[in-house]
Ribosomal RNA small subunit methyltransferase G (Deinococcus aerophilus), 244 residues
Amino acid sequence: MNARILDLLRRGADELGVDVEAKLPQFGQLLELLQQGNARFNLTALKSEEDIVLKHFVDSLSCLRGGYFTASNRVLDLGTGAGFPTLPLALVRPDLRFTPVDSIRKKIGFVAETARALGLDHVTPLVGRAETLGRQTEHRAAYDRVVVRAVAALPILVELALPLLREGGLLVAQKGPIGEDELNAGRRAAGELGGRVQVVDPFGLPLSGDARTLVVVEKLRPTPEKYPRREGVPNAQPLFWKTK
Ligand SMILES: C[S@@+](CC[C@H](N)C(=O)[O-])C[C@H]1O[C@@H](n2cnc3c(N)ncnc32)[C@H](O)[C@@H]1O
């Protein structure tokens, strides 16, 4: 990573109150591994160093806004893709235990290789669909936090995530700007699944100012047995949400 890109990462993280200083070499290594991964197979649409640092690394670190993660939390990253937000979060939060999940084996293969190369022993990648994991005793109600970035509309996320959370656990969803309709559907879905939307926190990403919203949903009661519905149904027929 050249000095200008390093400085972007440092300033972006600084604005979020996250100290990356000791981890700069590992962030540099992560950047190289992503670029190599992109050359092998199309892992992420972002190719320039500046875009990767601002729109993947700093953007992922923004999930720490508000301080919703506490030491030793088991954190499931739903739809991690090439490892976001897990990999940047795991670099700065060795006190958390991460399970990045994706239905695409190739992506999880990359996340596992990268976590190994970076020495991130507290990251345990898993191939699977959230609908299926949410019905397995090993995973249902097993996590303290579900974190998610850029996967689906809020009512879909709520159906996929709440079954995986223990009571008192939190879904921390990092989204772009969110409209009233989506938010209302998300609130109703949360009620149906045993939770409640506790926080809606709009903010601008450091340096770029891009609009983001952190939505936090708390699980208050056990999720009814009928949820999540079978694979693909939460997306095809989102709860309380009319797709066009
Ligand atoms: C747009 S990508 C976002 C990846 C990453 N979170 C990021 O911010 O760069 C969405 C990812 O979610 C995965 N995904 C979508 N629905 C899923 C589900 N029900 N279970 C597991 N993975 C899912 C897809 O395979 C895809 O890799």
